[in-house]
Amino acid sequence: MPLFFVSPKAERDIEDITTFIARDNSTRALGFAKELRAKMTEVAKSPELYRERSELRAGLRAARHKHYLIFFRFAGERIEILRVWHSARDQNDLFEAD
User: Fold this and answer.
1) What is the pTM of this model?
2) What's CA 23's distance to the chain center, in Å?
3) To 10 degrees, the CA torsion angle through 30, 90, 3, 35?
4) Which of 10, 64, 79, 83 fits a disulfide with 4 by CB distance 3.0 to 4.6 angstroms?
5) pLDDT tens digits for 70-95?
6) From start to end of the chain, where are the E strands?
């Protein structure tokens, strides 16, 4: 299985998501963070199965977990998780500062 790395921005995204959910249910927040990480492991097993999102950035792909999109790119045995973004948010803002 390829190795995957989570970018600092994606780590911050997960932290923000967890904090938001924890306002209502701290137990669910921790469980959801674990689900996101499990999905990342699943992505690492077969990254080519997930939708290309080249309209946002060359080489970008996205995997869905509930209402969230996990954006990543891969080359060979390396997968980089770039962002974790709610699907209702404007995706054109994803890499604005990059």
Assistant:
1) 0.91
2) 21
3) 20
4) 79
5) 999 998 888 999 999 998 887 877 77
6) 3-6, 51-52, 61-65, 68-75, 78-86
Short-list 74, 87, 2, 81, CA closest to 37 = 81
Residue 14 in tokens: 């997960």
Domains contained in the chain, CATH given: 3-88 (3.30.2310.20)
Crossing angle of the two packed helices 26-45 and 8-22, in degrees rounded to 10 = 150
Under a CB-based contact definition with an 8 Å cutoff, are residues 10 and 85 in contact?
Answer: no
In the sheet with 68-75, reading across from the earlier edge strand, the strands are: 3-6, 78-86, 68-75, 61-65, 51-52
